[in-house]
Amino acid sequence: MMRTGTGFGDAGMPLRVDDVMALLSHVATVKGMKAAVANSGRGAMLTGASAFVGGMLGGPPGIAVGGALGGLLGWMTSGQFKSVPQVLMELPAAEKQKLCAEAMAVVRNLDWTDAAQLIALVMSNSALTEKVLGVLTTYLAHELKAQITYAE
After folding, report:
1. pTM: predicted TM-score of the whole model, two decimal places
2. Higher pLDDT, 45 or 142
3. For 45-86, how does the pLDDT look when each residue is reduced to its tens digit (9 = 90+)?
4. What is the pLDDT of residue 10?
5. How far apart (Å, rounded) are the C-alpha atoms in residues 120 and 64?
6. Cα 24 from chain centroid?
């Protein structure tokens, strides 16, 4: 049998998504990462709902006023920065799997039994830490179209 990140078993076993997500959250916390994820869908929904309510209450002029207010509200709530661990927790399962698959390319050859051990192994090696950070940054920027900031 081969030793994998999931314990003893064949290499085809499911990967430890929870361990890798804990590692990514830890790296993001250490680096003080925050991300503003584009919420164009939420802004459009606010604008549409406001225009609908405005139209119901005020007729055609109400549509214009409601749409304008909804657009303003959508713009004001867009681009709010959240901690990257929070963003990671809110990811759908399919997105977590995708991110973990990318991160596994970096930690695939490590031998760990739980998240704490994986975190210790990666954080003790600055080259590995930077590679994991690179995977996370690339994913946030390209897949989620997020703007990323780091703590000073």
Report:
1. 0.66
2. 142
3. 666 777 777 777 878 887 777 777 766 666 565 557 888 999
4. 38
5. 56
6. 10
Segment 93-131, tens digit of pLDDT:
899 999 999 999 999 999 999 999 999 999 999 999 999
- Residue 41: which residues within 8 A CB-CB, separation 6 or more? none
The 8-class DSSP code of residue 151 comes to -
Query: Contact, 146 vs 38, CB < 8 A?
Result: yes
The first and second tokens of residue 18, run together, are: 């929870």
Return d(Cα 122, Cα 23) in angstroms, integer.
8
Question: Which residues touch 125 (CB under 8 Å, ≥6 apart)?
Answer: none
How far CA 99 is from CA of 75, 77, 137, in Å, comes to: 29, 26, 11
8 C-beta neighbours (distance < 10 Å), count:
9
Beta-ladder partners of 125: none
Q: Backbone dihedral region of 108: left (phi > 0), alpha (psi from -120 to 50 degrees) or beta?
A: alpha
- Between helix 126-138 and helix 115-123 the angle, nearest 10°, is 110
